[in-house]
């Protein structure tokens, strides 16, 4: 018990000394030991790393889960150390609605079958999105969060300890300075004391004696103050070295975060490539529906427009028509119903038996058929004939 009381008194004295030193520094009444420029640079870089890591984490979470209520719910489950319940995302909910409505209209109808196909693709997109979120959380968000909650907390703890050691050092310097001033004034007064009969007349001398004694009691003797200063300087230097070593590890943190960033980009690239492939397959499926599907509002055998969507290219969603398509040559081809040579700009997979598949850079013969959609021409390669989209062709002179 006695040891605890002494320890408490010592801690209280240290805290009071630091508070006094900090206050005097703020009012410009005490000198402050400045850290070296290299250490200040490292501290600034650590703060910048922490700030931007938190901001990137927050924006990534917003990207992966735009709903703030869901993010808050997941955060609460994480704080309570409970498993987040599985829930369908927006793509999956849309897919389920499309599938249910497709079955309601009838899988044998054109519209019902198209809804089911779209719904199945939407559910695939939802599964791919969940894989992206899971991969990003493990390979990207978790390492960033570990730095904030682990490494940077250690850096902050050591930095705060360095600040306390600096306050102790400056307080020791201040005590030594005051002790030396008190010792000098005491020596000066002792060297030329006034006569005994003049003691009463020299009241200021009595006050000086009391003041010097009080200073010596408060600041301690010069020798003890010097010893405390050496100890404080040693502890400050040691703590500065520990903090510097930790801060220099920020370079390794940046390298690790760069690898995590590559993993995140790879996950996004795989996700978007997967989504693109799903949509291309869906386009082909919708374009392959026969034109004589029976519908609820049409009798079987009646003509209905088939769905035909040109396959999107990886580099561009829709090919830009070349200048030759708007030239007089195209108008002439349509007005005369003649034939022209055309170079194929992109690969094209026929969506139905009435269309002609194309290979990039091949040359085919095209002609305009009366009544045909203005976005299509009739193409011929040897004995093969079929419709071809104008946006995939460049008419040759």
TrEMBL record:
Keywords: Apoptosis, Coiled coil, Golgi apparatus, Membrane, Mitochondrion, Mitochondrion outer membrane, SH3 domain. Residues 24-295 form the BAR domain. One of its GO terms (cellular component) is mitochondrial outer membrane. Signal peptide: none annotated. It is a peripheral membrane protein. Residues 293-334 are annotated as: Disordered. Residues 155-182, 215-242 form a coiled coil. Gene3D superfamilies: Arfaptin homology (AH) domain/BAR domain, SH3 Domains. GO terms for biological process: apoptotic process; membrane organization. Residues 337-397 form the SH3 domain. SMART domains: BAR (SM00721), SH3 (SM00326). It is found in: Golgi apparatus membrane; Mitochondrion outer membrane. This is Endophilin-B1. Residues 293-309 have a biased composition (Polar residues). Belongs to the endophilin family.
């Amino acid at each position: 018990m006695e040891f605890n009381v002494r320890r408490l008194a010592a801690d209280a004295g240290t805290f009071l000394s630091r508070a006094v030193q900090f206050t005097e520094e703020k009012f410009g009444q005490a000198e402050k030991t400045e850290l070296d420029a290299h250490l200040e640079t490292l501290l600034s870089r650590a703060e910048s790393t922490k700030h931007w890591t938190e901001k990137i984490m927050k924006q990534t979470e917003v990207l992966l889960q735009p709903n703030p209520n869901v993010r808050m719910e997941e955060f609460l489950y994480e704080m309570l150390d409970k498993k987040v319940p599985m829930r369908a995302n927006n793509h999956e909910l849309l897919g389920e609605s499309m599938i249910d409505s497709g079955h309601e209209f009838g899988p044998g109808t054109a519209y019902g079958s198209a809804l089911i196909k779209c719904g199945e693709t939407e559910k695939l997109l939802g599964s791919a999105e969940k894989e992206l979120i899971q991969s990003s959380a493990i390979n990207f968000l978790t390492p960033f969060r570990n730095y904030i909650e682990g490494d940077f907390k250690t850096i902050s703890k050591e930095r705060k300890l360095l600040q306390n050691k600096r306050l102790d050092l400056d307080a020791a310097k201040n005590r030594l300075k005051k002790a030396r001033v008190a010792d000098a004034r005491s020596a000066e007064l002792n060297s030329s004391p006034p006569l005994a009969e003049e003691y009463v007349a020299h009241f200021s001398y009595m006050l000086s004696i009391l003041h010097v004694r009080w200073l010596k009691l408060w600041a301690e003797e010069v020798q003890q103050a010097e010893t405390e200063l050496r100890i404080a300087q040693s502890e400050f230097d040691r703590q500065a070295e520990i903090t510097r070593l930790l801060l220099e590890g920020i370079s390794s943190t940046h390298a690790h975060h760069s690898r995590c960033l590559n993993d995140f980009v790879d996950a996004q690239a795989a996700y978007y490539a997967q989504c693109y492939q799903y949509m291309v397959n869906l386009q082909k499926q919708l374009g392959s529906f026969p034109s004589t599907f029976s519908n609820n509002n049409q009798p079987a055998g009646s003509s209905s427009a088939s769905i035909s969507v040109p396959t999107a290219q990886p580099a561009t969603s829709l090919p830009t028509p070349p200048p030759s398509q708007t030239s007089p040559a195209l108008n002439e081809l349509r007005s005369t119903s003649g034939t022209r040579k055309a170079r194929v700009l992109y690969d094209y997979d026929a969506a139905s038996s009435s269309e002609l598949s194309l290979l990039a850079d091949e040359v085919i013969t095209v002609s305009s058929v009366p009544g045909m959609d203005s976005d299509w021409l009739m193409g011929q390669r040897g004995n093969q004939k079929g419709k071809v989209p104008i946006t995939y062709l460049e008419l040759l002179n």
